[in-house]
Amino acid sequence: MSRSSTPSALGISSGFAGLGPAPLTVLGVVFWALSGSDFRRRVGAALMGAGVACSMGCTVGHGLYALSAASAIELRQRVSSSQQRVADDLRKANEDNVQLRRSMLDLSNQMEELRKEVANVRGQNEGLAHGMADMQRGQTGTEQSAGERNVASTMVLVDGQRFVVGPAEKHAFEAALATLREGDIAQAQDGLVAFVKHYPQSRYKPSALFWLGSVQYALHNYLDAEVNFRALVTAEPSHLRAPDALLSVADCQVELMNVKAARRTLQDVVDAYPESEAADVAEERLAKLQ
């Protein structure tokens, strides 16, 4: 064994010498086994193992970093795509909303024009109501029918129709119209409602339904007015008042914001009564509602 491989040369404290020859002999054998080329090979192998471990750690680290970067890129792409879809949907919704507002504005303008027209017609109808009531009063006949069993019955002419009625029935109808002529619309409504209920089969009924619908329209009771106007048209489609009654049904539907139904009714007026003045008015209103 060379001098460089002695215990003192390897930094072993001289204190081991006090332990006797046996321990020193064992240590000498160990250091001899580890000395020389065998020791170098073992140390080199250990260093190579450490280098391989470090190299593998770096490789794994680079792999994990690359995987994390790819995932981040894919996530950003997905987020970007989702944001683009949301932006497209929002833009389309805004465009649809703008178009809807324009359509609503156009419809509102049409409704406003039609309301003005209806208001004008309403004023004309009120004047017509007073004039027709006066005319009916002048046209109502008082001739006695010799052929009637009841000598108290009276022949009358109302809205182009001539028929015989009893005194009570005649008085009830004329009293309701008299109230209307005096301008008490609410009282006239009560009188006409009572007349229709009390005389459901009266020949006055078509005229009573027309005037009842007219006063209900004036009182903004559009639902009941529409019912009574339509009842007149259904029961007496050839009656003198039928075209105006059907036109008034359309007016009620406009007030109730049912424009689609109003268009259909106005077209019905034109188709059913093409030669009437009501048909001319209906055509004008249809043009405004297109």
TrEMBL record:
Cellular location(s): Periplasm
Protein name: Cell division coordinator CpoB
Function recorded in the entry: Mediates coordination of peptidoglycan synthesis and outer membrane constriction during cell division.
Family annotation (Gene3D superfamilies): Tetratricopeptide repeat domain
GN (gene name): ybgF
Transmembrane residue ranges: 12-34, 46-67
Keyword field: Cell cycle, Cell division, Coiled coil, Membrane, Periplasm, Signal, Transmembrane, Transmembrane helix
Coiled-coil regions listed in the entry: 90-124
Homology family: Belongs to the CpoB family.
